[in-house]
Amino acid sequence: MSTPSTALIVGARGGIGGAVARSLLRHGWRVRGLARRVPGDAPGMEWIAGDAMDRAAVVRAAQGVQAVIHAVNPPGYRNWDTLVLPMLDNSMAAALAAGARLVLPGNVYNFGPDAFADPGEDAPQHPLTRKGAIRVETERRLRDAVPAGLRSLVVRAGDYFGPGAASNWFAQGLVGGRRPVRALTDPGRPGVGHQWAYLPDVAETIARLLAREDDLEPAARFHLAGHWDADGTEMIAAIRRALGRPSLPVRRFPWWLVSVARPFVPFCREMHEMRYLWRTPLRLTNGKLVRFLGEEPHTPLDVAVAAALGDVPEQGRCP
Fold first, then answer.
1. At 125, which CATH number?
2. Are 166 and 312 in contact (CB under 8 A)?
3. Percent of the chain, pLDDT > 70?
4. Is the dihedral of CA 78, 79, 81, 87 positive or negative?
5. Residue 109 domain-assigned?
6. How many contiguous H segments (helices) and E segments (strands) does the chain have?
7. Per the confidence metrics, is the pTM higher than 0.90?
């Protein structure tokens, strides 16, 4: 019997990191999680206390692994300019030292209007936002490290939602941080489509791609189709169904208030910067992924929304 592969997940306590951990465990992987605070109860996981900003700690944690999942982001969207790239560099160093593939869950922030509406994996990346520019730089570093021996996998998807995901448009934008839910807010322009990605589907895709390691390109990139809300009404309708409240009020998202709050609230600043994605449709298509895997893992929208709502914490919101 062959020895199971081992993965290190940097950021395993976050939404996407936790989802990937659960998926890899189901696929028979051994999984290590690197976190500053090790949880007391995590069945099946090996936890290592460490900071993603500590390169030596990340490299030690990655010894003997076959994959490093870089699923860490600064909490609350703070200090992206100073933390995102150093943390990536540390995961790259760890993957190179271990001879492992580095996996980066990606998104659509890389793309500007010149790539709309359905950019392929190799579409030009000319973002208009600070956050988008950082995402472009992360991917550039992965590609530039191929001659040094780094193998990478970037899986881009729409707006994440699902169990364990708190700082996102679903939890803090549409549903908000108050319980019970008294109303939904719609940030989109009427009739404009929007793309969503259910975290367990993203994680399952990553697990299936890693199972095909020998067939992956050195710097592999794939797009997920996820859930495409063609006119901006389907996600709201699914939330109403899941809550059993077909007449739940829907209000326009107060973009003007976000603009006022953005100098003081980091999440509001990030929301405002990504406003263009709610005004212009950008839809990733999964042709390359389907040709490679045969299908894209896909949970029905109503099932995904019900699971996501069951795990949305009560919290502050913007605005």
1. 3.40.50.720
2. yes
3. 93
4. negative
5. yes
6. 10, 12
7. yes
